[in-house]
Amino acid sequence: MGVPITSIYFGGGTPSLLSPSQIGSIIEELSNISEIEPSSINRMEVTIEVNPDDISLDYLKSLKSNYVNRVSIGVQSFIDLHLEWMNRRHNSKRAIDAFNMAREAGFDNISLDLIFGFSQLKEQDLKYNIERLLSLSPEHISTYQLSIEKSTQLFRDYSSGKYSPPTDSECNKQYYTIKRELEKGGYYQYEISNYSKEGYRAIHNSSYWDHSPYLGFGPSAHSFIENRRFWVESDLFRYLEILEGSCGDISKLYHQEILSEIDLFNELIMLSLRVLKGIDYNTLIRRCPKGHVKGFMGLLERLLEDNELVLDDGYIKIPPEKLFVSDGIISSLFIL
């Protein structure tokens, strides 16, 4: 009996370095170890992340004939000065061309990314980016606040005082400008950072938020099954060294952790409250670890009284006006 697969996602790093035939071969091999027949693959969501400057019309057409039916294009911005500052290789014209090529290649499920929350982004810039997104009319849009990661030039600039991020108030305003304009444009928000047209919610990403099991392959890939999370060696050279010298034993490629009942409950809260529909109240209480139910219910009631959470048709959720500060609300529910 194989493992049932509901979606396949080629992402992280630059999967478009693979040829379409290589991607097709990987998908066929996955079908061999699952319950999915190759002829049925096109009825499931198969996504690849691409950079605008990495693709051509022929490449996209070949992807389409190798089972891929959804593309996620890392646009980030339609303003060239901002793209240069982000060290992106493409410009706004190339981003638009990439989208149009995907349409011409036959893709009817396209996701575009947009970045906000950096000091160069003014109100008129944000509105311009949103207008361009809406004019293209992709099926799905992801919006992310720029984060300052260690070991990056931006982190060094921030540490030395060369870069000053916008205030929380400014980022909050940008977040709700995006939300308002996209909803006016016919998109519905189903997760803190994600919007889609009706029927185009990202199936693969949604499986993370509802705590479904998933398997990851390749360097740095993470997997989650029941109470176990495991991940593959992240250093590419170390990965190849172990693989070449494994003699059939690849156990050294993997690291793992066993999640406790409390860990799993905290993750359930963290993931389910990112989704706007929230989590069923009875499920939440049933999953609460024994010995913590009374204290957790008391905390839950206080957050409901303070309007940090709402109970709507049996579901606990974060109210729309509190989505930007959801991290604080979610973490306050954790059992420590």
Q: What report would you give on this structure?
A:
By secondary structure, the chain is an alpha/beta fold. The chain folds into three domains: 7-208, Transcription Regulator spoIIAA (2-Layer Sandwich), CATH 3.30.750; 210-258, no CATH class; 271-332, no CATH class. Helix content is 40%, strand content 18%. The protein has 13 helices and 13 strands. The chain has helices spanning 20-32, 57-64, 80-85, 92-104, 123-136, 153-160, 168-184, 203-209, 236-244, 261-272, 281-287, 293-305, 326-332; strands at 7-10, 45-50, 70-76, 110-116, 140-145, 188-191, 194-196, 222-225, 228-232, 254-258, 279-280, 310-312, 315-317. The strands form three sheets. Strands 1-2-3-4-5-7-6 form a seven-stranded mixed β-sheet, with helices on one face. It has a three-stranded antiparallel β-sheet with strand order 8-9-10, with no helix packed on it. A three-stranded antiparallel β-sheet has the order 11-13-12. Helix 1 packs parallel to helix 2 (57-64) and helix 5 (123-136) packs parallel to helix 7 (168-184). The two termini are 39 Å apart.
Radius of gyration based on Cα positions: 21 Å
Q: Which structural class do you get from the secondary structure elements?
A: alpha/beta
Task: Estimate the helix proportion, in percent.
Answer: 25-40%
Portion of residues in beta strands equals: 15-25%
Q: Could you say how many structural domains there are in total?
A: 3
Order of strands in the sheet with the most strands? 1-2-3-4-5-7-6
**First-residue to last-residue Cα separation:** 39 Å
State mean pLDDT (0 to 100 scale).
Answer: 93
Number of strands: 13
CATH architecture of the largest domain: 2-Layer Sandwich
Largest sheet: 7 strands, mixed
> Stretches where pLDDT falls below 50 for ≥5 residues?
none
Number of contiguous helices:
13
Query: Given the C-alpha coordinates, what overall shape results?
Result: globular
Query: What sequence of helices (H) and strands (E) makes up the elements?
Result: EHEHEHHEHEHHEEHEEHEHEHHEEH
The CATH first-level class of the largest domain comes to: Alpha Beta
